[in-house]
Write a structure and sequence with these properties.
By secondary structure, the protein is an all-alpha fold. Helices cover 73% and strands 0% of the residues. The protein is built from 6 helices and no strands.
Amino acid sequence: MEKDYTFKPPQKLSKWVITFIVICLVFSIASIIGSVIEWNTYNQYSANDTFENLAPQDMAKVAAVAVGVHLPKTFFFIVSILIFLLWIYRIHQNGRALQYEGTIYAPGWSVSFYLIPLVNLVLPLLSLIHLHKGGTNRASEVQKSEIQPKVWLIYAWWILFWSSYLLSIPGNLGAEEETFEQLQGELPSFIASEVIYFIAGVFLIFVVKKVTSVQEKSV
């Protein structure tokens, strides 16, 4: 093992990652339901009306969706990202400690890739794939049996996640005082984004479980 890196079992950290992913997925379902509620609310008004025209009971309904669903969803998403990055750091540190074959990026860089614009489109994916392939090769040697890396899970998660993000952009670029007609036009895209986000989250759970399992077997 390299002197600068120490192996630490990633199992416990992976369980925290999966727990918060599940919480995010629950809020994703709630967000889809909330969007349907908003759609039905806006549909009761004329196309050129805005939030200022909402009746008090409808304003309370929309506010409840925002405060009870969208805000906590954002909070848990941020927390899940932080824990996920801790897991990314840990598994790359372990990869260096176990001296995986191939290109294994330094733990700090493996995390930084997610935070640098444009770079975060490709390098996080390549970093995780290189690490997982190196871990699979070592695990196969240690276990004396061939272990399939199943990198398609990583590709599927990555493509679905960015597809979800791209679908959510039109709604985020809207003006502050959008009409209900504009909001109703954006909601289908937002709902589609949430559905894909949910599927991406399911794939991420499998990715975390697979990568963690392989790394545990490679010791």
